[in-house]
Design a protein that fits this description.
Layout lengths: L3 E4 L3 E5 L13 E5 L1 H11 L4 E8 L2 H12 L3 E7 L6 E5 L8 E5 L15 H6 L2 E5 L1 H4 L2 H16 L3 E5 L9 H11 L5 E5 H6 L7 H12 L3 E5 L5 E5 L4
Parallel strand pairs: 1-4, 1-8, 2-6, 4-5, 8-9, 9-10, 10-11
Antiparallel strand pairs: 2-3, 6-7, 11-12
Family: Belongs to the carbohydrate kinase PfkB family.
InterPro entries: PfkB_Carbo_kinase, PfkB_dom, Ribokinase-like
GO molecular function: kinase activity
Length: 241
Amino acid sequence: MSDIVTFGETMLRLSPPGNERLENADEFEVRAAGAESNVAIAANRLGADATWLSKVPETALGRRVVSELRSHGIETDVVWSHRGRQGTYYLEQAGKPRGTNVVYDRENTAVATAEARELDVDRIQDARVFFTTGITPALSSTLRDTTLNLLKAARKGGTTTAFDFNYRRKLWSPDEARETLTRLFPGIDVLVIAARDARTVLGFEGDPRQLAHKLGSQYDFTTVVVTRGAEGAVGWHDSVV
């Protein structure tokens, strides 16, 4: 039995060395990177039994992702697919005024077709915590349904559900994100959200303490964590900030 099961896409990140530009690069550093698998790895390092759940293409790139994640000590429970690609992104790092540049290549990925009936729902229901993020339902209409169904299944099994809002403007508009993600809220026990997302996507006003209280009260979460970047976070639990 896992302490925590996470579900989502893990991509391959390709980065040129130093501050080199993508257009001039002759070589890239390759790493697996994904919000949900990062949480599984972090939980494992804190002593938890963690599992990452996903759908992955049965290709060299898909196997590369799974192999790297396993090297961090977490379990991987994946559906191997003969269709769909492995998502990648290219990260160009530099100081000001250039700044960081990210180019995504995640169309037609295997994970975008993942359905709840394919996945190990029993593992989720046997876990203490199920975690996913707002990135996952942003990737496809199929994943919107899958995310909803997995949250419902977790709740049915008595598993605590934790959700990182994690709005990404390159994936969808604030209106689309608000419409989709608020439909998931009834199945969520613990919400993590950036203060800026609470304001710009959900339309809430106030300081982080007020945001946490308003979110928790309106949507009946057990716990709300409002992050403030370098200034840390504010937590709300059972009506207490």
